[in-house]
Amino acid sequence: MSTDLSLKIDTPAESIEALAKEAEALKTKLEEERQKLNDVALSTVAQRLENVGQLSIKPRRVLKGHQGKVLSVDWSHDKRHLVSSSQDGKVIIWDAFTTNKEHALAMPTTWVMACSYGPSGTVIACGGLDNKVTVYQLSLEDDSTQRKKAVGTHTSYTACCTFLPNSDYQILSGSGDSTCALWDVESGSRLQSFHGHSSDVMSLDLAPQENGNTFVSAGCDKKALIWDMRSGQCVQTFDGHESDINTVKFHPSGDAIATGSDDATCRLYDLRADREIAEYSKESIIFGVNSVDFSHSGRLLFAGYSDYTVNVWDSLKCNRISILYGHDNRVSSLKVSPDGTAFCTASWDSTLRVWA
Questions:
Q1: 137/123 Cα distance (integer angstroms)
Q2: d(CA 253, CA 267)
Q3: Contact present, 343 and 337 (Cβ < 8 Å)
Q4: CB of 167 within 8 A of CB of 183?
Q5: Averaged over 7-26, what is the pLDDT?
């Protein structure tokens, strides 16, 4: 009997090698099967569509007040207020109509890389080189800095954070420690950890569905991962970029994601086809993409670049419709307003601009 067993088991090294070879063969086979389904390019299918007409997008407001590079911006659900965070350690709440500053909060550290408005419009969250996610209650009566709450702590910088869609009490954050985490604001406890990236997480976005239990994260391992919030498991992986992914955004339909990378391209990945379906790039574009967002319909993709411009892409035809000039340094963050009538850009030139 024992001789039978010894025949089956080679040395461990050999069996591992054989399994590795088998795994590679299966990967190749899977890729071949996926390519069979890759029948026609998105831009080819989209040729019969009408072209997007001339856009008359102009900078309508300039928000000045930060003393350093503006690193992040977010709209309030009231479609009127903005929160921005900066390298100077300040977080400012703006009225985008009047350009007035309504609150200015000083953080304990500089480089506040992430900020987000709570759904109620009465709280904001921010984080950065302090490795924390901190929540502030905004109130006109007393000093908001008195009403701050450290919610969670990562083991490296906080790169991005966002509130869940219908509650001020749960926050999702992504960090340089290569994890994402879901935090409970009241108790400060970590409800779920998401391990799967092999390098810094730079950006995350929640799926647009109301009861959404999925989100996407992307980072310096050149991958975008789709997560199930309930199980903490990664359910889909998208690669193809040749450098760090700085930004990721769900298409309004919830069926695709757009990414922007230091390789100077934006890409569109379809969750149902499980593959990349479009690339937005030109030979003349050599600078990295720092932030992307979709128009309300999903037809336009806005992308902020390190060459100080915003490029507007037709997401279906994959051609560039417009270049927007205005900033004097890299465009670090770009957000379309909740009703889709305007978008705001934040830049290293220490200003924010509202375009419409």
A1: 5
A2: 16
A3: yes
A4: no
A5: 82
